[in-house]
Amino acid sequence: MKGLALRIGANLRKIWPWFLAKLVLFGLTLLKLLPADFALNLMDRIARRLGPRQKRHKMMLYNLRRAFPEMTEEERVKIAMDSWGSMGRMAAEYVYLDKLFDFDPAREGKGRVEVSGIPLFLEIRDLKGPFIVFTAHTANFEMLPVAGNAFGLSVTVLFRPPNNPYMAEMIHDFRADRMGSLVPSHAGSSFALARQLERGGGVGVLVDQKFSKGADTTLFGVPVKTNPLLAKLVRQFDCPVYPARCIRLPDNRYRLELEPALAIPRKATGEVDVNATAQLLNDTVERWVREYPGQWLWYHDRWDIKFSEEYRNFVP
């Protein structure tokens, strides 16, 4: 009987992720029946209502207190609520991404999406060698590789799949149809990115994810470990690195910004300084977040403090 109970329990553990993925897919399918603007605004309101009831809300407020000690509690709560709203919008934007991305340089007037740095997009497209584009979890960062495809850029994007394997497959299929080549983040992902750069292609990387073992850096003046992968790839291939971000505008509009290539820090020997480069990435992300703090995902445990005594004793 004990063996039977264990097998039943194991099967139930497999069924639950499948059921959850199907439930999410069903919800998104229903959402698609609504007009896009109504759905985006609706998901914003729902996320603002449900978000503060989640455990991650404490993480948000803790991160905000350490990042903005000069702010009042009311100001930090407003940023947290804006961040929840941004996440709600992003869930709806998955459904409407094909309709939302309407950028057309030949069209008169403004659509939903405007692009800043078009000459840089064309510069990258015409490069005869490898390049790296990096971004952060700001606004709808998923639009950036879609824009790259629109400009004819060949970019291999590194992404972290969800722990739920069925949701991971669903999201991968959705992204692959719109964003080109994708590389799941795992032990061998660095080799896949290196092969793309060896072929003279481009690589897209999110640089603001938690990384327990990495370069010693700071973010908002607080010590943090940063993944050195991008810096090591630059050291190996000596390729240009371009910052890019998405910004939410009023009325469900977006601005995609591509910035000039960074001046990569180097040692006296001329070799790329990995730690200084990792810090430069953090400084860029911090600049973006300070400008639009409510558009960053503050619920991430970026500083790896979830199990610290200070966090456990923190009372929002």
UniProtKB/TrEMBL annotation:
Enzyme class, spelled out: transferase
InterPro entries in UniProt: LipA_acyltrans
UniProt entry keywords in alphabetical sequence: Acyltransferase, Cell inner membrane, Cell membrane, Membrane, Transferase
Catalytic activity, EC: 2.3.1.241
Subcellular location: Cell inner membrane
GO molecular function list: Kdo2-lipid IVA acyltransferase activity
Main localization, broad class: membrane
Annotated NCBIfam families: PRK06553.1 (NF005120)
Protein name: KDO2-lipid IV(A) lauroyltransferase
